Amino acid sequence: MSSPVKGRPEVVLRLAGISKRFGPLLANDGISLTLRAGEVLALLGENGAGKTTLMNILFGHYVADEGTIEAFGRPLPPGSPRAALEAGIGMVHQHFTLADNLSVLDNVAVGTESLWRWRSDRGAARRRLLDLSQRFGLEVRPDALVGDLSVGERQRVEILKALYRDARILILDEPTAVLTPQESAGLFETLRRLTADGLAVVFISHKMNEVFAASDTVAVLRAGKLVATHATASTDRAKLAELMVGRSVKPPAPAPLSPGEPVLELAGITVASGHGRPLLDGADLTVRRHQVVGIAGVSGNGQTALAELVSGLIRPDSGKLSLKGSVVEHGDPADMVRRGVARIPEDRHSAGLVGTMAVWENLIAERYHDSAFSRFGVLRRGAAKTYAREVIEEFDVRCPGPDARTQLLSGGNMQKLILGRTLAHGPDLILASQPTRGLDIGAVSYVHSRLLDARAAGAGVLLISEDLDEILALADCVTVAYHGRLTPLLPHDRVSVSQLGLLMAGHWDILRDILPETVDAA
Amino acid sequence: MRLEPRTDTPLALRLLAPVGAVVAALALCALLVAWTGAPVLRAYGLLFEGAVGSRFALTETLTRATPLILTGLAAAVAFRAKLWNIGAEGQLYMGALAAVVVGGGMLDLPAWALIPLVMIAGTAAGGVTLLGPAVLKVRFGVDEVVTTLLLNFVVLLLVSLLLEGALKDPMGMGWPQSAPVVEAAELPKLVARTRLHAGLAIALGLSVLLWLVDTRTIWGYENRAVGANPRAAAFAGMPVTRVMLRTALLSGGLAGLAGAAEVCGLKGYLTLDLSPGFGYSGIVVAMLAQLHPIGVVGAALFIAGIFVGADAMSRAMPVPNYIADVLVATSLLCMLVAGLLARYRLRRG
Fold first, then answer.
1. Fewest Cβ atoms nearer than 10 Å: which of A73, A112, A227, B327?
2. ipTM more than 0.90?
3. Does the pLDDT value for residue A108 go beyond 60?
4. Cβ separation of B228 and A354 shorter than 8 Å?
5. A374 to chain B: which residues are within 8 Å by CB?
């Protein structure tokens, strides 16, 4: 069906002058795009740049205020997901739309058969599913319950669901946000097979490395406008980052500092999980002043337990945790704060902040007992708000003022609020769990520079991240978590990404090559 | 048309929401009044007059509002901490029980000492009654809606048992009622030759006090944080379990105090019909007040006025006084809708 004019496959999708306004916000501003058969288009932009809005207009969830959409040369009626499906557009949402209690086959076939027929032709559906699954290397078990599948498998089911409906244009909204690095690589392989078959793919992302790993063309959105469209091969990271943010972004450059005395020492820490393998299994770790220690690992290998331990939320079943040389016997969150630990939680919405309370109330949440903020049980509201104004100023939190409700802040500003709450008091140890997850480039570089400033000021930083690039950019030493155990500290200049990948997958035998001296001792 | 969340609800709108809800409820119930054949405006006129139209009517309304303010505060305090205390009725009876035991003549004390002692006993009894379900909730995750609700019936049966047995008034002509509290335990009257008693002053004082605690103190700050997001509160180092138990003691205590004040201010002795559902009406009061301690006073006055006024109206017209229950229930439903509308705005397209 494609018209094989050499080098220029047919245009399958044409967006012209799409605009969409939400109240005072112009979410899409005159966006025009074309997509060709066999092409992977990456739609790159910061949070709130209008990527998802644009794709929701394309798929008929929203109606554009202005502009037209043409699919395969025919105009697409606005506001109808059904019309989009019939035109061959399939969408895989960031949050999957699968029924956990149905099998893979039922999930894929649901809605494709007429309700008036008295029996469904499951045999034909199964053959078709298996055929698609084989053709594109999307391995699934048709009879498995979706509730039992891993996130990566569920995503395969979503893609198969779209293909089953004869999608020729596939839209993926932040497809890698929930995937491990290995699963992401599998997804990109799938995309290559799909485009080889003539499908066109749009994938939405704010991660640079994915754009280079998977796309042919990259379109950059900023504040609702399409600022550039490039062939991916003809551009580079720095240029794209600048286009995305609107100014140049420098990668973090930690100044070399010699590590000081230890601030955090874990010795043989074990945390039981209640069933099966312990969450932490005899973990040893030392973090020193002027040092960033990165914890790499596929999620679920003990990072959460480690973060909760250092946060004071859980206690070890055995082993010793010391801060600045003194053993912590019965750590609780308040105790950890008193001992100079700044804790940046993994989930800022649910664990970090109380959304319905004011900014100032969240800023004093860890130290409202201080005589600066309360006396004889009575809050010193004036003093607390004055303090809040100072922190807002110093940490560049964009909000109407200390009385603003916290849930109205953007993700980046919420994180700045947490940084302000924890870093304003010159901590000795900083626990940063996924400190930049879900943040846009501007906020990410802010968080990084603050962490490095604290390191220069003498704090030790324990950085837990699923983003290897982040770890390698910031950390002086890296340790890999696998099945609740931690490798010895590896200096960041002696370990490569591929070695880290192997360690993350449990191939610890290569430690001998990286650190010949310490492994013999262990 | 669709609903969009408001970023911030202006104060005027928050105040307007309950007023709008009440007007809507009156309008809806006008249909029922009209159905009985009575002239609607005159019926509502009589209701209003019966509630606030005379010295007698006004003091009756205030008397009726007294326990409602206290049970309303009990519900508001608990609900703000997401502790769903449906057991204020039982806690009220436990408070009343403690009042007749402590104030029943076993202590020979002057009024200035006995009254506070009886009130404290009632408060403590109510608080301890809710402490059980609260401990089960924080330790084992037992749903407090079920335990507090069912405990109401346990308490009522316990009171019934005692009123037929150990506490039965020997001078009571065989009625299931307790011996009256001694004179020194009786709350003074606020207005001579009416039923209005000092319980109202206590209730009003407590609602102001609770508002100050809520907004000005560490306690209130912790309560609000734990109620809104217990995970974040725990992460920041707040004592979440202690806050929950403290809230339970306070909420149950307020309901218990309502019972003690009813006994010592109004009835003088304990019977099984001490409360016409004050504990449950307290939930309505709290919801109408949007869980605000000062708002509770207004909501309690409104509901008390409806009940007192409807009694007066039903004596003069063929409208049964059940209309009060319907009005209160309709107001609650309208309030839930109004609360939603205050948090969202309607937008076309």
1. A73
2. no
3. yes
4. yes
5. 217-218
